Amino acid sequence: MVSVLSTASGPLRAGAAGIRERNSDVTRFGKMTFTAAVGGLFALAVLAASVEAAPQAAPADKSIRPFQFHATDEALADLRRRIATTKWPSRELVADGSQGVQLATMQNLARYWQTEYDWRKFEARFNALPEFVTNIDGVDFHFIHVRSKQPHALPIIVTHGWPGSIIEQMKIIEPLTNPTAHGGSAADAFDVVIPSLPGHGFSGKPTTLGWTPVRIARAWTVLMRRLGYKRFVAQGGDWGNAVTEQMAVQAPPELIGIHTNMPATVPDDIAKALQSSSPAPAGLSADERHAYDQLDSFYRKGLAYAQEMSQRPQTVYGIDDSPIGLAAWMLDHDARSYELITRVFNGQKEGLSRDDVLDNVTLYWLTNTGVSAARLYWEAAHDVPLRQLAFFAPQGVKIPVAVTAFPDELYQAPRSWTQRAYPKLVYFNKVDKGGHFAAWEQPELFSAEMRAAFHSLR
């Protein structure tokens, strides 16, 4: 019901020429190698016809293909029909969100989604960007790749999380690639690469097990090398942080530093106290106690979605069958994000708009990735080495790290924990606004943080 236009023929869109130029030598070498191999086998067959040549494995497809997406009118009509025929539950029995996403909020969302929301507006903005697909380790990965006009721009790969997507980072593309128009200098420019995680958005859905943050991190390094970058930085939050920190642990020579807005800094004694629901350890500073209280609240009240997806992702069929079921599941990530996201459906204005929220939910709906995206939680939970590390525990990163601590993140990392977790901490800043979806909610602030964070590494 959804048509995807992804072809290698015809003129490439803006940004593709640079990729073609950077990959021309690799392509020529691959063609020469393949031709030589075929010629050698042919000559051998002529000289020794009685000997059957051993079968040769097909060369890996390393091509980078331009991509566009166009949802069919039928798919959008079906979406509206399903919203209109939602079977609603009874109203919650409390006056707040403590029982879950509130009925009035979801009905306001449904009314706007069915009658006013226009996916085509987003689709036009999305297709105006240079987008591509390439196959890495058997999975097709979709990514946005925007080069700055500045000749010495620093390449950065930015990874989204759940329930986010590449939509989270679209607002930071212009400020990062064109900093002079957004309070920066030409020396602050970035080339921006934004991939979709496997099973998310327009990336392929893995058909084999093993796609953990560790494997994704390796794939991202392959991607950056395939784009021709010899030196780059990486950024992420949520699952994007897990992937980015694993890139840093692997420490490929091209990766010169990372930035995270959801760092893994929680000391072992703090983690043990949280897991056992014990009182906070004595002697914590005000910032440390605030972080402890945030984490304690999240562990006690906010982990249900992650627990379900890490153990039984295939069970949540409803999020691939009901648009309202999908939207409610995605809105209820954590208490503070829920407040920040849903306020726009209750008449308030700040941060995300109704269209921002529904662009993201509709992307999940049209790509049928509710369940496939959930499997990343299962993969991480069933990987023995990863399971031995708490999600927020220091990972042993030895390369330069920059951290921005946003107040409405799952926890606002204290400087003291951050300095212990990252021996090569090159930047730390505690800001006054922004939450779990910082790049999406506060793109100008987030972009300014990227410029400051990586200034010393240029």
Quote the distance from N terminus to C terminus: 46 Å
DSSP strand tally: 11
Backbone structural class = alpha/beta
Poorly predicted runs: 1-54
| Shape assignment | globular
The overall average pLDDT, rounded, is: 88
Total number of helices: 19
Biggest beta-sheet profile: 9 strands, mixed
The arrangement of helices and strands along the chain is: EHEEHHHEEEHEHEHEHHHHHHHHHEHEHH
State Rg.
Answer: 23 Å
Q: Largest sheet, order of strands side by side?
A: 2-4-5-7-6-8-9-10-11
Helix percent band: 40-55%
Q: How much strand?
A: 5-15%
Short précis:
It is built from 19 helices and eleven strands.
Structure write-up:
The protein is an alpha/beta fold. The protein has 19 helices and 11 strands. The strands form 2 sheets. Strands 2-4-5-7-6-8-9-10-11 form a 9-stranded mixed sheet, with helices on both faces. A two-stranded antiparallel sheet has the order 1-3. α17 (415-421) links the parallel β10 (401-405) and β11.
